[in-house]
Amino acid sequence: MFWNMGDGGWNALGFGMHGIGMLVFWGALIWLVVVLARTVGGAGNRSRPAADAALEVLAVRYAKGEISQSEFETIRRTLTQK
């Protein structure tokens, strides 16, 4: 009539699988939070600010002789203003 469940289903294998399942769950949850934080916070592969890239292009153009020193200084001041 009544089924004998022994120790209530918490034998060594059942408890071990429960523990592994919880480790997988919490590990996946922590991984997800870290990935979201890096994506939203931008800590991942963040590119340099546009002003730094523009200053590099400006320096190359000046080095090639495409712009004069006064043009270089004017543009550099404009790019570095906050």
Task: Summarize the entry for a quick read.
The chain has 82 residues and is mainly alpha-helical.
**Helical fraction:** 55-70%
Largest sheet: none
Structural class: mainly alpha
* Count of alpha/pi helices: 3
Tell me the overall shape.
Answer: rod-shaped
- Report the strand count: 0
Number of domains: 2
State which percent range the strand residues make up. Answer: under 5%
Q: Give the N-to-C terminal Cα separation.
A: 82 Å
- Mean pLDDT equals 79
Radius of gyration over C-alpha positions, nearest whole angstrom: 30 Å
Description:
It is a single chain. With 82 residues, this protein is mainly α. It folds into two domains: 8-46; 47-82, no CATH class. The chain is 70% helix and 0% strand. It contains three helices and no strands. The longest helix is centred in the first third of the chain and has 30 residues, at 12-41. The mean pLDDT is 79.
Keywords:
2 domains, 70% helix, mainly alpha, rod-shaped, 82 residues
Give the arrangement of secondary structure elements.
Elements: H1 12-41, H2 50-64, H3 69-80
Helix pairs in contact: 2-3
